[in-house]
Write a structure and sequence with these properties.
Largest sheet: 3 strands, antiparallel
Radius of gyration: 22 Å
Helix content: 40-55%
Structural class: mainly alpha
Shape: globular
Strand order of the largest sheet: 2-1-3
Number of strands: 3
Number of helices: 8
Strand content: under 5%
Amino acid sequence: MGHPKKSKKKFSRPEHPWRAARIELEKPLMKDYGLGHKKEIWKTDSILRRFKKQAKLLIAKESEQAKKEEKLLIEKLSRLGLINENGKIDDILSLDIKNILDRRLQTLVYKKNLAKTAKQARQFIVHGHIDVGNTKVNIPSYLILKEQEHLIKFNPTSKLHNEEHPERVKKIEVPVTEKKKKPAERRTERRTKR
C-alpha cells in the first residue's frame, strides 16, 4: 500500500539509460517542446502506453461491457483532442508521443503566441501568469481539453496581462500589398530590367 504522504511513481524509466537511439529521439522533443527534463517524456510515454494497452484489450474482447468501455475511451480521447469524435479504436493505436505533447498547456500557450518560446511559456505557467478559464494553472504538463483551448489567457492580476509588457509577443500588422511573386516571375522581371 505504501505511505500516504509518498505518492507512487506514475511512470517507468527506460530499461537502459544510455541507449544512443533513444537519446537521439528524445533530443528534438526536448528542444521543440521546451521540456525541463527527460522525465516529462517518460511520463508522457507512460500515458500513451496506458491508452494503447487499454485499446488492445478492448479490441480482443467482444462483450457488451467492452463496447461500453470502448465508447467511453473514444469519448475521453476525443475530448482531449487526440482523436476525432467519430474515431475508431484503431485510431488510438496510431497515436504517438507528439500527439500528447501537443495537448500540454505549455505547448498550447506557445502556439497561441502568448509566449515567444516554449521555455518562456513554461516559465509563465510555473510563475502563475496563465489562467485556463478562471483558474490559475501552474502545471506545464496539464492536458488541455478541446473545449478549454480558447480559455487559455493571461491571469488578470499578472503584470503580463498588460499588452505593453516587454516580454509579451508583439502583434505585427503587415500592410496589405500586392501578392508575393513567384521566384520564376522575379527572374523574368530582373531580366527585363537589364
